Amino acid sequence: MIKTFTQDDVVRYVYEETSPEESLLIEDALMSEPDLMTFFLEALELRALMNKIERQPRVNTVQSILDYSKNHPANPPAKVRHS
After folding, report:
1. What tens-digit pLDDT sequence spans the chain (83 residues)?
2. pTM of this structure
3. Three-state SS for 76?
Protein backbone atom coordinates (compact mmCIF):
# COMPACT_ATOMS: atom_id res chain seq x y z
CA MET A 1 0.00 0.00 0.00
CA ILE A 2 1.31 3.45 -0.93
CA LYS A 3 0.74 6.15 1.66
CA THR A 4 -0.56 9.46 0.36
CA PHE A 5 0.67 12.39 2.38
CA THR A 6 -1.31 15.57 2.89
CA GLN A 7 -0.34 19.15 3.60
CA ASP A 8 -1.12 18.44 7.25
CA ASP A 9 1.55 15.73 7.23
CA VAL A 10 4.02 18.19 5.70
CA VAL A 11 3.27 20.77 8.40
CA ARG A 12 3.89 18.14 11.07
CA TYR A 13 7.17 17.32 9.31
CA VAL A 14 8.19 21.00 9.18
CA TYR A 15 7.59 21.27 12.93
CA GLU A 16 9.43 17.97 13.59
CA GLU A 17 6.32 16.21 14.90
CA THR A 18 6.77 13.05 12.84
CA SER A 19 8.49 9.82 13.76
CA PRO A 20 11.81 9.03 12.07
CA GLU A 21 10.11 6.39 9.92
CA GLU A 22 7.31 8.75 8.87
CA SER A 23 9.85 11.50 8.15
CA LEU A 24 11.64 9.23 5.68
CA LEU A 25 8.36 8.42 3.92
CA ILE A 26 7.42 12.10 3.75
CA GLU A 27 10.85 12.95 2.33
CA ASP A 28 10.33 10.33 -0.38
CA ALA A 29 6.90 11.81 -1.15
CA LEU A 30 8.38 15.31 -1.35
CA MET A 31 10.89 14.13 -3.95
CA SER A 32 8.21 12.54 -6.12
CA GLU A 33 5.35 15.05 -5.76
CA PRO A 34 6.18 18.57 -7.02
CA ASP A 35 3.02 20.11 -5.50
CA LEU A 36 3.85 18.69 -2.09
CA MET A 37 7.45 19.95 -2.41
CA THR A 38 6.19 23.43 -3.31
CA PHE A 39 3.96 23.42 -0.25
CA PHE A 40 6.87 22.21 1.90
CA LEU A 41 9.14 25.05 0.73
CA GLU A 42 6.39 27.61 1.33
CA ALA A 43 5.75 26.18 4.80
CA LEU A 44 9.47 26.42 5.64
CA GLU A 45 9.52 30.04 4.51
CA LEU A 46 6.41 30.89 6.55
CA ARG A 47 7.87 29.23 9.63
CA ALA A 48 11.05 31.26 9.28
CA LEU A 49 9.08 34.49 8.84
CA MET A 50 6.83 33.74 11.82
CA ASN A 51 9.87 33.11 14.01
CA LYS A 52 11.02 36.68 13.27
CA ILE A 53 7.82 38.29 14.51
CA GLU A 54 8.27 40.26 17.71
CA ARG A 55 5.23 41.50 19.52
CA GLN A 56 5.29 44.23 22.11
CA PRO A 57 2.45 45.74 24.11
CA ARG A 58 1.50 49.36 23.60
CA VAL A 59 3.08 51.81 26.06
CA ASN A 60 -0.31 52.79 27.50
CA THR A 61 -1.12 49.12 28.16
CA VAL A 62 2.06 48.69 30.19
CA GLN A 63 1.35 51.94 32.04
CA SER A 64 -2.19 50.78 32.88
CA ILE A 65 -0.82 47.55 34.35
CA LEU A 66 1.78 49.43 36.40
CA ASP A 67 -0.84 51.91 37.66
CA TYR A 68 -3.17 49.07 38.62
CA SER A 69 -0.35 47.27 40.42
CA LYS A 70 0.70 50.41 42.27
CA ASN A 71 -2.85 50.98 43.54
CA HIS A 72 -3.71 47.34 44.24
CA PRO A 73 -4.77 46.58 47.86
CA ALA A 74 -2.03 43.96 48.11
CA ASN A 75 0.54 46.75 47.66
CA PRO A 76 -0.25 49.36 50.32
CA PRO A 77 1.67 52.64 50.05
CA ALA A 78 4.80 52.92 52.14
CA LYS A 79 4.23 54.62 55.52
CA VAL A 80 5.70 58.04 55.85
CA ARG A 81 7.94 58.49 58.89
CA HIS A 82 7.33 61.54 61.00
CA SER A 83 10.29 62.88 62.94
Report:
1. 567 899 999 999 999 999 999 999 999 999 999 999 999 999 999 999 999 998 899 999 999 999 888 888 776 666 655 55
2. 0.63
3. coil
